[in-house]
Amino acid sequence: MFGYYLEMALRSLRRNRMLTALMVLAIALGIGASMTTLTVLHVLSGDPLPGRSDALYRAQVDPRDSNGYEPGKEPMEQVSWTDGMNLLRAKRADRQALMTGGSVAIQPEQLALDPFYEDARFTSADFFPMFGVPFQYGHGWSSADDDSSARVAVISSELNNKLFGGGDSTGRTLRMQDIPFRIIGVLGDWRPNPHFYDLDVKNYGENEGVYLPLSTSQDLLFGHDGSNDCWGNGGGDQYHLKNAPCVWLQFWVQLDSPAKAVAYREFLVHYSQEQKNLGRFQRPPNVRLRDLMHWLDYNMVVPDDVRLQTWLALGFLLVCLVNTVGLMLAKFMRRAGELSVRRALGASRRALFGQLLIEAGVVGLTGGIGGLLLAFLGLWLVRQQPTGYAKLAHLDPAMLLVTFLLAVGASLLAGLLPAWRACQIAPALQLKSN
Amino acid sequence: MDILPILSTLRRHKITAWLLILEIALTCAIVCNAVFLISQRLERMRIPSGVAEHELVQIQLANIGNRPDAAARAETDLAALRQIPGVQQAALTNQLPLSSGGSWNSGVKLEPQQQLDTANVVQYMGQNLLPTLGTRLIAGREFRPDEFVDYADAVAALQSGNMKGLPQTLVITQALAERLWPGRSALGRPLYFGQGIPFRVIGVIANLARPNMLEKGAEYSTVWPIRLNLTQGASYLIRCAPQDREQILKAALAKLKQLDPRRVVLEKRTWDEARYEFFQSDRAMASILVGVCVALLIVTALGATRSNILHYFQTENFLLATVGIGLGMVLSFGINLFLMTHYELPRLPAIYFPVGALLLWLIGQLAVLGPALRAAAVPPVVATRSV
Question: A388 and A274 in one domain?
Answer without folding.
Answer: no
